[in-house]
């Protein structure tokens, strides 16, 4: 039985995403209260893998995941999953007045307008996850929880509202992470993630982007977070389309490595929702192979 850590407790969106990675009878899901704890479990070998949220289409990156991936022992993503996000507002069966509403900060941000309209006098309180909010409501600590709809199956609460979302088609992306090892095979519709710290030099970010553009590589995300060292020093998180096994991507990663003080590979894995690839690619993988062969033959003295 292989153990998969997930950001819990039971009833989080992350648990739903993790269920999609489970092979029946072979894998067991193990909840952890925070993202760093779930990632520590896989780093320490307590579990084989960990499933955590990485970005939301409304609120953006999940900072706890970004920081935990850039620091500590390296982990690599081997799969991703994208879930549609709509919430239920859960209360105890006998609740009549809602004075406090608890949830994960990302969830509260995605129902801000709904709360202003339907529970304008309630105070919003942050909890570690949406399901942790349901647990706290069950214990009587808060009056309502903004939770994943599945939370009602785990906690004895009542649905005050369901299908709640300020943005109708909001989505959250989750990663399945393992300790470094064999990479997933390229599928032709993959994503590669990395985090880099650039040298302190004028134009260095433009150089990184140019390296990708020159090779016809599509950037799907670039995000900065402070290194927490000097003020003004940032890390860049980069997601691009393609697999490191592809010549164009390998070549681009080597170029980024040359421009950066530090580069950490965070995995090449199949896209959950394959992007429609653009037609305007500067050179194909075959062109990269042919060009490398040409340079090799020139080096060997062939009159190429
Ligand atoms: O608290 C949960 O249920 C989570 O899985 C976390 C999380 C997030 O980090 O964004 C996942 C999806 C929703 O966007 C709200 C919360």
Q: Which features does this protein show?
A:
alpha/beta, 15 strands, binds prephenic acid, D-Maltodextrin-Binding Protein, domain 2, 6-stranded mixed beta sheet
CATH superfamily of the largest domain: ACT domain
CATH topology of the largest domain: Alpha-Beta Plaits
Treating each run of at least 4 consecutive H or I residues as one helix, how many helices? 9
Q: Hey, roughly how much beta strand do the residues contain?
A: 25-35%
CATH architecture of the largest domain: 2-Layer Sandwich
List the helices and strands and how they pair.
Layout: E1 2-7, H1 13-19, E2 27-32, H2 35-43, E3 49-56, E4 60-61, H3 63-70, E5 76-84, E6 87-91, E7 100-103, H4 105-110, H5 112-118, E8 123-126, H6 130-138, E9 144-147, E10 158-164, E11 171-178, E12 190-198, H7 204-214, E13 219-226, E14 234-241, H8 247-259, E15 260-270, H9 285-299
A few lines on this structure:
The chain is of the alpha/beta class. It is 28% helix and 33% strand. It has helices spanning 13-19, 35-43, 63-70, 105-110, 112-118, 130-138, 204-214, 247-259, 285-299, and strands spanning 2-7, 27-32, 49-56, 60-61, 76-84, 87-91, 100-103, 123-126, 144-147, 158-164, 171-178, 190-198, 219-226, 234-241, 260-270.
């Amino acid at each position: 039985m292989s153990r998969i850590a997930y950001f819990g407790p039971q009833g989080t969106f992350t648990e739903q995403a993790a269920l999609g990675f489970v092979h029946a009878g072979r894998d067991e899901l193990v909840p952890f209260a925070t993202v760093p704890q779930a990632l520590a479990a896989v780093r320490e070998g307590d579990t084989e893998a960990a499933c955590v949220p990485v970005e939301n289409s409304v609120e953006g990156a999940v900072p706890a995941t970004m920081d935990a991936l850039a620091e500590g022992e390296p982990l690599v993503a081997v799969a991703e999953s994208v879930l549609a996000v709509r919430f239920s507002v859960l209360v105890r069966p006998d609740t009549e007045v809602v004075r406090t509403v608890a949830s994960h900060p990302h969830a509260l941000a995605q129902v801000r307008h709904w709360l202003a309209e339907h529970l304008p006098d309630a105070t919003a309180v942050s909890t570690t996850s949406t399901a942790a909010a349901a647990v706290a409501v069950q214990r009587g600590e808060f009056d309502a929880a903004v939770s994943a709809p599945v939370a009602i199956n785990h906690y004895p609460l009542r649905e005050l509202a369901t299908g709640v979302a300020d943005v109708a088609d909001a989505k959250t992306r989750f990663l399945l992470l393992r300790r470094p090892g064999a990479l997933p095979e390229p599928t032709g519709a993959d994503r590669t993630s990395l985090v880099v710290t650039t040298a302190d030099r004028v134009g260095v970010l433009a150089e990184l982007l140019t390296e990708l553009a020159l090779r016809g590589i599509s950037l799907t995300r670039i995000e900065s977070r402070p290194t927490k060292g000097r003020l003004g020093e940032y890390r860049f998180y980069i997601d691009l389309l393609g697999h490191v096994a592809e010549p164009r991507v390998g070549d681009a990663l080597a170029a980024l490595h040359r421009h950066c003080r530090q580069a950490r590979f965070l995995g090449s894995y199949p896209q959950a929702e394959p992007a429609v690839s653009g037609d305007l690619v500067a050179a194909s993988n075959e062109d990269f192979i042919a060009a490398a062969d040409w340079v090799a033959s020139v080096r060997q003295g062939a009159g190429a």
